Amino acid sequence: MHASEPTECGNIVHWSMHRGAWFYRLRVTLLGSVLVAVCAWACFDVMDRRARTEWNAPITVGVVVMRLGDVSPEALVRLTERVRVLERRLSMELRRYRPEAQQPMIRLVPYGPVEVTEPPPDVPGTTLWERLVHTVELFQYTSAVDRAAGVPTLALDSRIYLLAEPPRSGFDYSVEGYSEAGGRVGVARVSLDATTVDLGLFVVAHELFHTLGASDKYDEHGRTRIPEGLAEPDRVPLFPQPGAEIMARNRVVDATREIAPDSLEELYVGRWTAREIGWLTAPVRQRTESAPIADATRY
Ligand SMILES: [Zn+2]
Prior knowledge:
Shape: globular
Oligomer: single chain
CATH architecture of the largest domain: 3-Layer(aba) Sandwich
Strand order of the largest sheet: 2-1-3-5-4
Number of domains: 3
Low-confidence stretches: 1-9, 283-299
CATH class of the largest domain: Alpha Beta
Order of helices and strands: HEHEHEEEHEEEEHHH
Structural class: alpha/beta
Helix content: 40-55%
Largest sheet: 5 strands, mixed
Bound molecules: zinc ion
Strand content: 15-25%
């Protein structure tokens, strides 16, 4: 008995070690493959997002309209129709900086409206955990909307989701939004009726430009930063401005007063924003990138 035990034991130990080593190798191989795939996808995604602001080829943006509650059907139809007007307005603005650029360089494709029963997740928090939870919740929300509206997610360079809600009596019209800077997804909300169609699309454009790398051009009180947030900073006299800079949101009418734009014809892309998203030429862009915004006021 003592003579046979070591042999049996030895065989079992040997087999266990063999099996353990095999599983270990399998696990390492699988994890390694997943890691390589994730890294390859991340590299591709980073390069693909950067390519959006080189403007060598048109980018395609989905404008996904969602309807929450009793929103005017006429206003929703008008909103979809005016997407083409926003596309034209952005083309005109690009032409100021790049007259030779192929047009339209930003193609806007409307989707929806999709009926929803709840709004998108609120503005993301500040902690890493809050942002992680928000990312997951937003992904789940937009995935469901994409399925309902037939949005070809992978074929689009950016997607802006616009939630249309009925105006609430006794409240001012509200427009708001958030986006991942340099990311692919933006969210905007508008109290929609016949008078706020263009305002809603203005916010769509604002959030789209965030996804392309543009920063806000208003201060902590919501007031336009001057001159970065001006449509025409060289205008003489400076006020009233002819329109609202896309990242400042308001049209400055005099030194103390500014108002929300009425129409997409008032949408301007100012010099500072144009540099951030790569519309301005390389030498000027390099000066911007190396200079803080305060220094940039020299331009
Ligand atoms: Zn913003």
